[in-house]
Structure to design on (385 residues):
């Protein structure tokens, strides 16, 4: 699977389908049984982390030379998709491990790669990504977190908000201003460790969905780190952050595919069992049309996402457009499909006794994080192929 670019643009190769079967079996056996409790208790899905790590599926994107599986972009999408089908909170483990570490993969020195990608591949620590701030969301270049050079060190001060898996991850890619006069070209990237003195975390956010994935503020209070923890050259951090999102928006599309597929599968089974007016409601044309539309839109989203994954692997010139398009379209479809699944279950769908209400809540975040879908449309418009 390492470095593979020979998969068909739209159809996964045999090895990808074998991977799907493996991940689906693991997710159904070791992740799905805990999904409702993880949501209800708003607790980190430790069972999922243990299962994924044991199967070497927690960070499949790490190159082989650093001890990873060397999975290509489509394989990574399939892993995230299948985990999200069972539990979206759990799918943030492989997804955010890629998001947090990809700046190191793309721009880090060889020494930095060896130091951090190896432990990530072994499961010794997860990676998170610190870009957004209280006053810098869609306008990420307006961040205020500062890094000031002090001899062979950098000293960081500031706050990052909406950081996924904060407090659980050992490693953090942090974007900070090193030259305030240059706006985006004055931003640099660093690796900060959870154990660094001056690093602390806010209380977990109380969220609508993905309750099992902690979202917290990260505080940097005179955090002093060695200069060799800078990712790439000074002033290149924002460019690295944007390159990273070109690739990782596709992982959000993968989450959207997974939760939509899970909702469709459950609704399809339900309407075949539920009887009204003397026959299964699946026999009614109105219900059939709903299911047909759900399946059609989901498959369109899957084709676009897999095509974007192929472009991510090849680093095609039109990746920026396709990454944004896949994330935007798939997440809109996921919201529609999960909402329709709740509708198909009627009053039962609105209760926590059935999983589709959780899926509907979880799906919503895919339209928001890694750039709202309004921002995705701006990105697409600026990068029309």
């Amino acid at each position: 699977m390492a470095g593979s670019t020979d998969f068909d643009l739209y159809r996964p190769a045999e090895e990808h389908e074998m991977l799907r079967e493996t991940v689906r079996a693991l997710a159904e056996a070791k992740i799905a049984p805990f999904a409702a409790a993880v949501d209800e208790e708003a607790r980190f899905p430790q069972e999922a982390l243990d299962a994924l790590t044991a199967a070497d599926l927690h960070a499949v994107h790490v190159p082989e030379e650093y001890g990873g599986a060397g999975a290509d972009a489509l394989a990574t999408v399939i892993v995230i998709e299948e985990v999200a089908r069972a539990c979206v909170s759990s799918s943030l483990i492989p997804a955010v491990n890629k998001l947090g570490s990809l700046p190191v993969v793309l721009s880090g020195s060889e020494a930095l790669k060896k130091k951090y990608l190896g432990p990530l591949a072994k499961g010794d620590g997860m990676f998170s990504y610190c870009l957004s701030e209280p006053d810098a969301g869609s306008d990420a270049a307006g961040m205020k977190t500062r890094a000031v050079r002090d001899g062979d060190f950098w000293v960081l001060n500031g706050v990052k908000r909406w950081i996924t898996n904060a407090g659980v991850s050992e490693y953090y890619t942090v974007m900070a201003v090193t030259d305030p006069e240059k706006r985006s070209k004055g931003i640099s990237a660093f690796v900060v460790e959870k154990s660094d003195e001056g690093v602390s975390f806010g209380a977990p956010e109380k969220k609508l969905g993905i309750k099992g994935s902690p979202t917290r503020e990260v505080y940097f209070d005179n955090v002093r780190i060695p200069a060799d923890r800078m990712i790439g050259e000074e002033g290149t951090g924002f460019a690295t952050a944007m390159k990273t999102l070109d690739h990782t928006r596709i992982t959000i599309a993968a989450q959207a595919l997974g939760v939509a597929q899970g909702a469709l599968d459950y609704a399809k089974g339900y309407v075949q069992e539920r009887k009204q007016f003397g026959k299964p409601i699946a026999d009614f044309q109105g219900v059939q049309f709903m299911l047909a539309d759900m399946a059609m839109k989901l498959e369109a989203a899957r084709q676009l996402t897999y095509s974007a994954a192929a472009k991510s692997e090849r680093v095609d010139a039109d990746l920026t457009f396709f990454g944004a398009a896949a994330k935007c379209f798939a997440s809109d479809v996921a919201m529609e499909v999960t909402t329709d699944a709740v509708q198909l279950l009627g009053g039962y769908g609105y209760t926590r006794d059935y999983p589709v209400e959780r899926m509907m809540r979880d799906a919503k975040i895919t339209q928001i994080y890694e750039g709202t879908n309004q921002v995705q449309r701006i990105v697409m418009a600026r990068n029309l192929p």
Q: What stands out?
A: Residues 273 and 280 are 6 Å apart (CA to CA). The longest strand covers residues 153-164. Residues 237-273 form the longest helix (37 residues).
